[in-house]
Design brief:
The complex is a heterodimer of chains A (318) and B (414).
Chain A lengths: L9 H11 L2 E2 L1 H11 L4 H10 L7 E4 L2 E4 L11 H11 L10 H11 L10 E3 L12 H16 L1 E8 L5 E14 L4 E9 L5 E8 L3 E10 L9 E9 L4 H8 L5 E6 L4 E9 L3 H9 L5 E5 L1 H22 L1
Helix pairs in contact in A: 1-2, 2-3, 4-5
Chain B lengths: L10 H13 L13 H14 L4 E6 L2 E6 L22 H13 L7 H12 L5 H14 L2 E6 L2 E6 L4 H7 L3 H8 L6 H10 L7 E4 L9 H12 L2 E8 L6 E13 L6 E7 L4 E6 L3 E9 L3 H11 L18 E8 L6 H10 L4 E6 L2 E8 L6 H5 L5 E6 L2 H17 L6
Antiparallel strand pairs in B: 1-2, 3-4, 6-7, 6-10, 7-8, 8-9, 11-13, 11-14, 12-13
Classes of the chains: A alpha+beta (318), B alpha+beta (414).
Amino acid sequence: MKIFSEIYNTYFEITEKILKRKIVTKADIMEIIRQNGFSETMLFLEPKLTGDDGYGLLIHENGAYRSILKKEPHTPLTTLEKSWLCAVLNDRKSGLFLDTAQKEQLMEILGIQPLFSQNMICFFDMFTDGDNFEDPQYIDHFRKILTAKQNHSLINISFQSMKGGRITHYFLPVRIEFSAKNNRFRIHVIKYKKNMTPLDSGIINLSNVTETVPTNVTIEDFAYNMSKKEVTVEVIEERNSINRFMMEFAELERTSEFDEDSGRCTVKMKYSGRDEAEILIRLLSFGPTVKVLEPPELRQKLKERIDTQSALFRNLHA
Amino acid sequence: MSVYSELIKDFGKVRDYVRDFYIFGFRTREDFDGKSKRTYDNEKRRIESWLSDHIHTSLNGHKKTVSVKIDSSHIFKNPLYQCYKSKSYTDNDIRLHFILMDMLDGNMLTVSEITDRIASDYGMIFDIQIVRIKLREYADEGLIIQKKIGKTMFYAKSELYADTLTEKFSGLADMIKYFSEETPFGAVGSFILDKLNTSNDVFTRKHAYMVHTLDDEILLQVIDAMRRKKIVTLSCISTKKRSAFNVTAVPLKIHSSLQTGRNYIIVYQPTSERLSSVRLDFVKKLKIMDDCADYDKYYGFYEKNKAALWGTSFGFQREFGQTEHIHMELLINEETENFILMRLEREGRGGVVTKISDGKYAYDIDLFDANEALPWIRTFWGRIAAFETTNPFMQQKFDTDIQRLSEMYGGDAE
């Protein structure tokens, strides 16, 4: 079994889409390549599909191209794909999508050893207070919210707020976010008034949801933008910090510049304002090898933490 | 001179470039030492072609840098999966793929019948050996089923299709969408979504290390070795020192960090009789060696020792089982800062939290390498009233780090 195999190649995928059409024009071929290929695929694939020295899978007749195949192409699942399905069916989160009986039936149909087992991999720094994916109530809320997201329909959600109060409102789920570190699902939502005008956007922890009531009200036109803040830091080449820093913050969109003379790297990163507290402690974890240059508010918060700690140190050593 | 192509034969050749453009994004052509300028230009051109929506170039002085910019929290499909869809092939590979899938749909035939029909029904002449090799290859990949009747081998197309399954099991397509962005091996889910002619438009990720997908090809081999209880030789290149080294060892477990983005193979090295770890992204090649008769015994060593691991370090050479102690005292306002106590419990990896007095708590843990916990300990700066460790290097670092930071930010006076 190989992941890097021509069976999964983009050119094969494009060729299958073209052959499925049975008869295509050159313009059709070029459009399918343009939509599905890499940026230079047209240059390489189109002559192979239409040229005299090409693959010979299309025959040029009456100004169009006809597939030489007798049937519509249909590629079965590979062993790799079947064993991957078996592996994910063993994941606790698969129960959010399929019932136990469905999972067992599917396992039997696939009839193959899982690609890997969960106990081969240890996520050693995953938080231990993650969601209970097997709770029937949790599964019910997950499925209703997923359906609402797919139908673009409003759903009435009740949930426990951070302060302990109960909030009930109409929401449009726009995406379902999973954090492997937190082992939690969060729902990105737009909050709506009773007259169905949008109020604001927010994020709800699925584990805090207590009730979900779907509605038939659909919203086709909506805008969801998460505003981002930017932090600029300087990373010093000490204790392999640049490597560690760039890897740890790879998830964030950023630009970086390395100054060979000073051995320092300046990195600008975008982050959600909601995550500022988390960003602050992650920056602190790098110690004196990372210095926050901007924004001043974040720099000030960091400085306060350091000043407080310095004062505690002075007391400790006094 | 070979002609440039968007496609590549060896994934390993491009893996480091993609990683470098994505992780660092500030290196110039001159930094890729050991590679010719033409090699660099070709690999850069390919990556620009695969990841055109995410590639950025800029000038650092008079030198050009290339970076792959992805905000993983806003994206529904890992763009780096594109790299797996670039395997080169021959004209005969693609011809035989579509013809065999067409001809064997509902038919069971011998290799000579297949070869004859390719000529009569599709107008192409193939050597019977080439057809046989492709049939065997596709049988290994699971696309074709082989059946021996008497002394003759018959071939038919597998009849298990992704769309048949998703029609039968409602919820399956959504499950594939979700797991196609999960690590490891999410790329395989994306291959199935390609077959279904659909894509994930529901699930996004936070704290996601999309770059891990580049290690999946190696990881698959490591997992195979673990399952078969084999000794392996890992050919590695350290990104830190850029030096090559080999490790012959028994792979026991994958340790994956969701906070630092690093993945490790926990191994037992019979020569040094020690457990240790190897960075997965350092591994360039894996060679499967002999069976490991004592695999279960070595795995038992891992199980016995894992409680004293913070992450992956079993510490330096020392007396077996020796651990280092950390004792930390924290100031916590129980009424307003209960979340700090929750952090200690959920992130403390087995450390013991005890109340000393109102507003003061202790955290204690014994580890093979206490220094590994230092980044986490620093996240509590601002409330650490006391800190002691039996690791003198760590104690010194802890004491000096805060002084250095204080100077860096101008102390109380700024």
